[in-house]
Design goal:
By secondary structure, the chain is an alpha/beta fold. Among the domains are: 1-109; 339-538, Glycogen Phosphorylase B (Rossmann fold), CATH 3.40.50.2000; 547-728, Rossmann fold (3-Layer(aba) Sandwich). 54% of the residues lie in helices and 9% in strands. It has a 7-stranded parallel β-sheet, with helices on both faces. Strands 12-11-10-13-14-15 form a 6-stranded parallel β-sheet, with helices on both faces. A hairpin with a 5-residue loop joins strand 1 and strand 2. Helix 9 (163-172) packs antiparallel against helix 10 (176-188). It is globular and about 95 Å long.
C-alpha cells in the first residue's frame, strides 16, 4: 500500500498512486488515437483503481477520463457503471459528470434513462441550448416526438444555430407543413448559415413538389457553401440527402484527402460507408473514425458491429483495410442473412398451436387494415390455440393506433416491442435500428414460443423473418403488400439490397413468401430469380364489405352537402397516403384537366401524408379553389365513399389496392392505371376503366368518358358490388391465408 494525499490534504490508503494511474490513462488514450484497441482485461483491471480515486477525491478526477476511454474502446456498459458509481460518490458542480453519464447511457441504447439523467440539468439550466438540444434528441429517439420538437424549438429560440437541427427534427417527424414554413422562412433569411440552408433544401426535397423552388434552394445552398476545404463535406451531405451514397462517399474521400485528421470528416465518411453496407470494401474509411468517436457513441457502436461481422468471417476491419479486395464481398445486411440462413438453430418447442402476427404499426394504410382484419378473424375462428399481435409502434400521438379498434383487442393486449435491449450477435452486425427490432422480436418469440409467425410489410418482413429464424420458429410467413420494393422506392439504394436477403431467407424450408396479388407474386419471382416455388404464393386481400354499400339519393346529398358540393354535381374522389408513389400531383393535374371541360365537376381527396402540402399548393396554383376539397384523414371512409360518382387512383406502383375493392363494394366505378395487380381488382371496361397512358390528359379522358355516360356508371355500380363480394370476400381470404399459415397450401 502507498500513502497519498487526497484533495483535502488527508493521507489515505490506495492501490495505485494517482500520477501513475494518470500516466496509464494517457497511455491508453495514445493507443486509441493510433487505432489500437486496449484489451478488455486491462480495462477491467483499472476499473477498481479508478473507482478508488473517485471515492477519495470529491471531484472524481480519473473517472470521467477513464469513462471516455471506455466509450472509445467500445465498452459503454462499463463506462455507464463507472459513471453511475462516480455520480454517487463525487460532486458534479458543473454538470459535466451527469452529461457524460447521459452519453454513456445513450450509447448503451437506453435513451429513456439517459433523458431522465439529463432532465435535472435542463431544469437547472433552462437557457442552455446545448442541453435542450440533447434532450430533444433523446426525446425523439424514445418516441416522445412532441417533447423533442418543443425542446428543439426552445433551443433554436435561444441560439439560431439550432434552427437547422429543429428543421431536421420536423422533417424526421414528417411535420410537412411546419417544416416547409420553417424552410421557406429560413431561405429568406439564411445570412450565410450553410447548415440551415441545407436543412431547408432537405425539407423542400422531402415535402415540396415545386421543382423550380427546389432548384432555387439547391442553387442557394451551393452558393452558401464556403470556398474552402469544407466544400466537399457539404456536397457529400447533399448527395446523402438524395440517397446517392456512392457519390457522397466519393466527396468524403476528397474531404479526407484535404483534411486527413479532421474528426468531422472521419466520422461522416464512416457513417456513409456504414450506410452503404460494403463493410469489407470500405473498411479503412470505417476504421479510421474509431479514434474520434468519443463524442459519437452510436457511431462507435456501429463501427464495432462492422468489425464483429468481419471477424465472424475470419477477418477484421484492420485486415480488410490492408486487403479490401479479399473482403469486398462482405456486406450488411446481406452477409448477416447468409450467416443465419446457413446455420441451424434448435427448433423452438411451441407452446401449443400459437400464432404471432407482427407489424410495424396500425397506421391508416391498406396493409395495416388487412393485418387488423386477419388478426381479428383468426382470434374469432379459433384455428389457433392463441394469437398475439406484436407492434413496433402504437401511439395515438402519431396515429399509429388508427386501426387498433379493428383488431378487436384492447391496447394493453398488444405487445409493443421493447427495443431498448442489449443487442447480441448476429443482429449486432445490422444497422442500429434494424438490430434493435430484430433482437426485440427474437427475445419475445423465445418467451412466447409460437408455432407460426406472420410478418407484414418490408423491411419488417426481412428483419422479423431473420429474428424468427434465429429463434427457431417452425413456420414463418412473410406477407408483402406491394410489387417488388425497387418499384415502390425507385430512387432509394436500399431496396435493391433486400433481394439477397429474401433469397437467403427463402432457402429455408420454414419460410413462405405471400404476395397480395398474382401480378405481385410474378414480379417477386422474377426479381428474386426463383421461378415457380411452393415457398412463394399469393392470397388476394379480402375485407368485411358489409359496411361498404351504395347509398340512396338522400344520403348522397347529405354527404355532398358536408363537403359544400351540390347534390347534382358530378363528384370524383380518392383516398390514399400522400406519398410519392401515389402521385398526388398527377391526380390534381388530371382533376384540373377535367374542370376545363366540366367546370361543374367536384373533386375530394381523403387522407394525409408528407406530400399533402404540395398537393394543396398545386391545386391552389391552378386556381381550383373550392372545386377540389382536401377532406383529411377519416375513420368512416365506408360512409363517405358512396357520395362519389367515380373513384380515381393515379399510383405509379400498386399490388392490390384495397381502396379500389372498397370503392366498388360501395357501388362506385373506378378509374386507375394498369400497373401491378390493379387489373385483378376490377372487370376492365365493366366495373372500372384502366388507364394505360401516363399523362394527366389520359386520366382526364377516362373520367370525362365515364361522367358523360350515366348508363355505364349505373351498370358498373351494380356489377362492381357483385364482383367484389364474390371474389374478395373475407372468408375466401381467410381460407387461403390459413392454408399458408398452417402449411396446407397443397
Amino acid at each position: 500500500m502507498v500513502l497519498a494525499n487526497d484533495s483535502s490534504g488527508r493521507q489515505q490508503n490506495q492501490r495505485w498512486p494517482l500520477p501513475a494511474l494518470q500516466s496509464e490513462l494517457a497511455a491508453l488514450e495514445a493507443e486509441l488515437a493510433s487505432g489500437k484497441k486496449p484489451h478488455v482485461e486491462r480495462l477491467q483491471a483499472l476499473e477498481g483503481d479508478v473507482k478508488h480515486w473517485a471515492g477519495w477525491f470529491s471531484d472524481g478526477r480519473p473517472a470521467p477520463r477513464f469513462a471516455r476511454i471506455l466509450l472509445r474502446a467500445g465498452q459503454p456498459d462499463a463506462a455507464r457503471r463507472l459513471l453511475e458509481y462516480t455520480h454517487r460518490v463525487a460532486s458534479d458542480g458543473d454538470g459535466s459528470l451527469s452529461l457524460l453519464l447521459v452519453n454513456a447511457t445513450a450509447s448503451c441504447g437506453d435513451h429513456a434513462s439517459a433523458l431522465k439523467v439529463l432532465q435535472p440539468l435542463v431544469q437547472a439550466q433552462p437557457q442552455n441550448p446545448a442541453l435542450l438540444g440533447r434532450a430533444a434528441e433523446l426525446a425523439c429517439k424514445i418516441g416522445q416526438v412532441e417533447d423533442g420538437l418543443a425542446f428543439y424549438a426552445r433551443a433554436s429560440s435561444i441560439d439560431t444555430a439550432w434552427r437547422g437541427r429543429y428543421l431536421a427534427a420536423l422533417i424526421a417527424a414528417e411535420r410537412a407543413e411546419d417544416a416547409l414554413a420553417e424552410a421557406r422562412a429560413a431561405l429568406r433569411h439564411t445570412s450565410g448559415d450553410t447548415a440551415l440552408c441545407f436543412a431547408s433544401l432537405r425539407a423542400l426535397w422531402r415535402f415540396g413538389n415545386d421543382r423550380d423552388e427546389v432548384a432555387r434552394a439547391r442553387s442557394q445552398f451551393l452558393a452558401q457553401i464556403p470556398p474552402d476545404d469544407s466544400a466537399p463535406l457539404w456536397r457529400a451531405r447533399m448527395h446523402k440527402c438524395a440517397q446517392d451514397y456512392e457519390a457522397a462517399l466519393a466527396e468524403l474521400h476528397v474531404a479526407h484527402r484535404n483534411n486527413p485528421q479532421d474528426p468531422s470528416v472521419l466520422r461522416e465518411r464512416a457513417e456513409v460507408a456504414l450506410l452503404l453496407g460494403h463493410w469489407g470494401r470500405d473498411a479503412s474509411a470505417i476504421a479510421a473514425a474509431a479514434p474520434v468517436c468519443d463524442q459519437a457513441p452510436e457511431l462507435a457502436a456501429q463501427i464495432a458491429r462492422a468489425d464483429r461481422l468481419l471477424r465472424a468471417f475470419g477477418g477484421s476491419l484492420a485486415s480488410a483495410s490492408e486487403d479490401p479486395s479479399r473482403w469486398s464481398q462482405l456486406r450488411s445486411p446481406e452477409s448477416v442473412f447468409e450467416i443465419v440462413a446457413a446455420r441451424r438453430q434448435p427448433m423452438l418447442r411451441p407452446a401449443g398451436r400459437g400464432l404471432v402476427m407482427i407489424a410495424h404499426s396500425l397506421t391508416a394504410g391498406g396493409a395495416e387494415r388487412i393485418v387488423a382484419n386477419i388478426f381479428r378473424r383468426l382470434r374469432e375462428e379459433g384455428r389457433f390455440d392463441w394469437v398475439k399481435l406484436y407492434l413496433v409502434r402504437l401511439s395515438a400521438e402519431d396515429g399509429s393506433d388508427f386501426y387498433l379498434p379493428l383488431t378487436g383487442i384492447a391496447r394493453h393486449d398488444v405487445v409493443v416491442l421493447d427495443r431498448d435491449v442489449a443487442v447480441e450477435e448476429p443482429f449486432a452486425y445490422l444497422s442500429q435500428d434494424a438490430a434493435r427490432t430484430a433482437q426485440a422480436i427474437r427475445d419475445r418469440l423465445l418467451a412466447d414460443r409460437p408455432a407460426v409467425v406472420h410478418l407484414s410489410l418490408e423491411p419488417l418482413t426481412l428483419y422479423g423473418g431473420l429474428a424468427a429464424l434465429e429463434a427457431g420458429v417452425p413456420r414463418i410467413v412473410l406477407h408483402t403488400h406491394n410489387m417488388r420494393p425497387t418499384s415502390l422506392f425507385p430512387d432509394s439504394p436500399i431496396p435493391p439490397r433486400w433481394r439477397d436477403c429474401y433469397a437467403a431467407l427463402l432457402k429455408r424450408e420454414e419460410v413462405r413468401l405471400v404476395c397480395c396479388a398474382r401480378a405481385a407474386m410474378g414480379d417477386y419471382a422474377e426479381w428474386l430469380g426463383i421461378g415457380a416455388s411452393e415457398r412463394l404464393t399469393f392470397v388476394h386481400n379480402g375485407s368485411d364489405f358489409d359496411r361498404f354499400r351504395p347509398a340512396d339519393e338522400a344520403a348522397r346529398a347529405q354527404l355532398r352537402a358536408e363537403l359544400g358540393f351540390a347534390a347534382e354535381a358530378p363528384v370524383v374522389g380518392t383516398a390514399f397516403k400522400f406519398r410519392e408513389e401515389k402521385r398526388p400531383i398527377l391526380w390534381i393535374e388530371a382533376a384540373c384537366a377535367v374542370l376545363e371541360r366540366r367546370p361543374d365537376a367536384r373533386f375530394v381527396l381523403f387522407g394525409d401524408g408528407p406530400l399533402l402540402p404540395a398537393a394543396k399548393d398545386a391545386a391552389a396554383a391552378r386556381g381550383a379553389g373550392n372545386r377540389i376539397v382536401f377532406a383529411g384523414l377519416v375513420d368512416d371512409l365506408h360512409r363517405r365513399l358512396p357520395l362519389l360518382d367515380l373513384f380515381l387512383l393515379t399510383s405509379s406502383s400498386e399490388a392490390l389496392p384495397n381502396v379500389l375493392l372498397e370503392a366498388q363494394a360501395a357501388g362506385v366505378p373506378v378509374v386507375a392505371p394498369d400497373v401491378g395487380g390493379i387489373s385483378e381488382t376490377m372487370i376492365a371496361g365493366e366495373t372500372g376503366l384502366l388507364v394505360r397512358d401516363e399523362g394527366a390528359d389520359a386520366y382526364a379522358s377516362a373520367i370525362l368518358r365515364a361522367l358523360d355516360d350515366p348508363a355505364w356508371r349505373r351498370s358498373a355500380s351494380h356489377s362492381g358490388t357483385e364482383f367484389i363480394r364474390k371474389h374478395f370476400s373475407p372468408e375466401r381470404m381467410m381460407a387461403n391465408m390459413c392454408a399458408v399459415l398452417l402449411g396446407e397450401e397443397a
